[in-house]
């Protein structure tokens, strides 16, 4: 068998992605975070590069190697991810794909020194983080913007709400109530929604799903936005 054919669909395009969790510091040794593995975002970055795109992957802390041909920017907090994304999309960006599980809130203040357990209870006040994908979709020269929605219930309705509220071109809806797919698993089953359509991708390995999604995004982007 010969080597994989090198794709051409995204030649000349710059694809920017976010992936993985963010970490929100409480003090120098502690943070709030989540279980995102980054697998879906890394697989999409690899598939976009294989399709000929220039790829920038803004990644929270994960245990994954940077795919070949992808340029990775490592970040920790949501604010750092926001800053890295805004600087990456500033020049030319054709497609932005937000797969990161961005922490919705961060501790309102970060202690300079390690917090001591002086009390029987501790209250941490949290404050909202910026919405990265919504900020990209609000840019005057907006790239084709794709979000992910991981939901446990009412999946399609919540996803449709996010598509509209964040002004996205497309959203990938993911039912994470089924533990054999989603967050930490190697397979996934998703539905893709956009303004005037829906397409269901049955359960398949994340690497295969990533190639199929990149193909699909490239086709729709080409059709709708020239
Ligand atoms: N997202 C983002 N920045 C944030 C929060 C979310 O870019 N601060 C992106 C995610 O990467 C994903 C999409 O928005 O592509 C949806 O994320 P999700 O957590 O499902 O949506 P939220 O708007 O945060 O709503 P909620 O968590 O309340 O369901
Ligand atoms: Ca969220």
Automatic annotation (TrEMBL):
Signal peptide range in chain numbering: none
Cofactor(s) in the UniProt record: FMN; Mg(2+)
Cofactor, free-text remark: Binds 1 FMN per subunit.
Domain DNA/pantothenate metabolism flavoprotein C-terminal as annotated: residue spans: 11-219
Chemical reaction(s) catalysed: (R)-4'-phosphopantothenate + L-cysteine + CTP = N-[(R)-4-phosphopantothenoyl]-L-cysteine + CMP + diphosphate + H(+); N-[(R)-4-phosphopantothenoyl]-L-cysteine + H(+) = (R)-4'-phosphopantetheine + CO2
Entire-sequence positions represented here: 187 to 412 of 420
Listed GO MF terms: FMN binding; metal ion binding; phosphopantothenate--cysteine ligase activity; phosphopantothenoylcysteine decarboxylase activity
Entry keyword set: Decarboxylase, Flavoprotein, FMN, Ligase, Lyase, Magnesium, Metal-binding, Multifunctional enzyme
UniProt binding sites for CTP: 104, 114, 130-133, 148, 162, 166
Pathway assigned to this chain's UniProt record: Cofactor biosynthesis; coenzyme A biosynthesis; CoA from (R)-pantothenate: step 2/5; Cofactor biosynthesis; coenzyme A biosynthesis; CoA from (R)-pantothenate: step 3/5
EC number: 4.1.1.36, 6.3.2.5
UniProt-annotated stretches for the region Phosphopantothenate--cysteine ligase: 15-226
GO annotation, biological process: coenzyme A biosynthetic process; pantothenate catabolic process
Originating organism: Oleiphilus messinensis
Assigned protein family: In the N-terminal section; belongs to the HFCD (homo-oligomeric flavin containing Cys decarboxylase) superfamily. In the C-terminal section; belongs to the PPC synthetase family.
Superkingdom of the source species: Bacteria
Name the record gives this protein: Coenzyme A biosynthesis bifunctional protein CoaBC
Function (record text): Catalyzes two steps in the biosynthesis of coenzyme A. In the first step cysteine is conjugated to 4'-phosphopantothenate to form 4-phosphopantothenoylcysteine, in the latter compound is decarboxylated to form 4'-phosphopantotheine.
GO cellular component: phosphopantothenoylcysteine decarboxylase complex
